[in-house]
Design a protein that fits this description.
3 domains, six-stranded antiparallel β-sheet, 11 helices, binds zinc ion
Length: about 375
């Protein structure tokens, strides 16, 4: 709920909202992009501006109960709203354009253009709390990245580091304030690149795409995948690098062939303490999960919420109705507890049930995370690409 409000205030949308014809684009990338480029504009902070306009005068009244404070609050709110609308978005917001030839990022007049071949590299991407995305790249295509800045001539192969930094380990570090989740955006870019980079000479031959399409050859036979990746840790956990993983082209749960992925999050150690304080430091790993399994997890979560609500009310209503030694406030508190705590516990428990992978202990400096897979044979066939 709080997160949803924050998203609204920050002008965030889902990828599906930003790209209405997402399914058509995925089905026929070349055709759709040849007809029309896809643009995802930088986030707009309309709601943040509105909130500033409303909250400041309200705070003036609540704190001081004077009309003067309300007027001062209104003035402050207006200044903040103008900052949100006119100053911040062009400064930090990053616009995205996808067309037949590649991906274009723009911020404050600086434009960086990446060819599709850059993204035709195997391995998983790293999405660190949506702020930084590390993407495995094909190093041969770096020299084809173009940069334009308003006051300088165009550059080739030397991208603007504020938008894109090339790492030493065949990864690119994208940072920006996008209006869509950065991890989902670059997952889309990589899926498009698998198709669109194929015709260009820069594409490295024989590089397996991140997750193969359903029509791709059958998953690797056990033992054919080379040495197993991931050092075993106690209790069935293995330690995996977070960038450049290549998963078998099948659902990590039911083993059906799939090209769909689901993002699983793993926090740093004691990350729950950070979460209590309102922040989090987590890594998002995109693991193959078929549509049917993803639907099943959603159903489980929904049932967990309802069951939690029922149990919560079942436990709290007797106190609320009969009193059982509680005063009026105590009775009301019990109902509120049942209504809020029950569904919350139900959701937390149900959202951990039946998942094909659990992640924990993300180590940002070593760039590793501990994972426990439901199917050890799936874990045993994970390979390392770039990164
Ligand atoms: Zn499945």
């Amino acid at each position: 709920m709080l997160q949803r409000l924050l998203k609204l205030l920050l002008g965030q949308r889902s990828l599906r909202q930003a790209v209405p014809d997402l399914d058509g684009l995925l089905a026929d990338p070349a055709g759709r992009l040849a007809a029309r480029a896809v643009t995802i504009r930088p986030p707009r902070l309309w709601w943040a501006a509105l909130a500033a306009l409303a909250a400041n005068p309200a705070a003036g009244w609540l704190l001081f109960e004077s009309w003067l404070a309300v007027w001062i609050g209104a003035g402050l709110g207006l200044v903040e709203a103008l900052v949100f609308l006119l100053v911040l978005p062009p400064k930090v917001g990053t616009g995205v354009r996808l067309d037949r030839d590649g991906l274009e990022l723009s911020r404050r007049g600086t434009v960086v253009r990446c060819p599709w071949a850059l993204f035709a590299a195997p391995g998983s991407l790293l999405d660190e709390s949506g702020l930084v995305v590390l993407v495995p790249i094909h190093p041969g295509a770096v020299e084809d990245i173009q940069t334009w800045r308003p006051d300088q001539p165009a550059r080739q192969g030397d991208p603007d580091p504020r938008l894109l930094k090339i790492g030493p380990d065949a990864t690119a570090r994208f940072s920006g304030f996008f209006s869509v989740p950065a991890g989902a955006l670059f997952a889309l870019v990589r899926r498009l690149a698998q198709v669109l980079a194929a015709g260009t000479p820069q594409a490295a031959p024989g590089l397996a795409p991140v997750v193969r399409a359903a029509a791709a050859p059958a998953p690797l036979a056990p033992g054919a995948a080379g040495p197993a990746l991931g050092a075993p840790v106690a209790g069935g956990w293995i330690e995996l690098p977070v960038v450049g993983l290549i998963f078998p082209a099948e659902c990590s749960d039911c083993a059906a062939p799939t090209n769909q992925v689901l993002e699983f999050a793993g926090g740093v150690r004691f990350g729950w303490l950070l979460r209590l304080a309102g922040g989090d430091w987590a890594v998002g790993l995109q693991v193959p999960v078929c549509a049917a399994c993803a639907r099943r997890y959603r159903t489980t979560r929904r049932r967990g919420i309802w069951l939690g609500l029922l149990i919560g009310l079942g436990l709290s209503l007797p106190f609320a109705v009969l009193g059982l030694g509680l005063d009026e406030i105590g009775r009301a508190m019990m109902v509120v507890l049942g209504l809020i705590l029950g569904p919350l516990v139900g959701w937390v428990v149900a959202s951990r049930l039946g998942l094909p992978v659990h992640l924990r202990r993300y180590r940002p400096i070593r760039r590793t995370v501990q994972a426990r897979f439901k199917r050890p044979d799936f874990a045993g066939r994970i390979q390392r690409g770039a990164g």
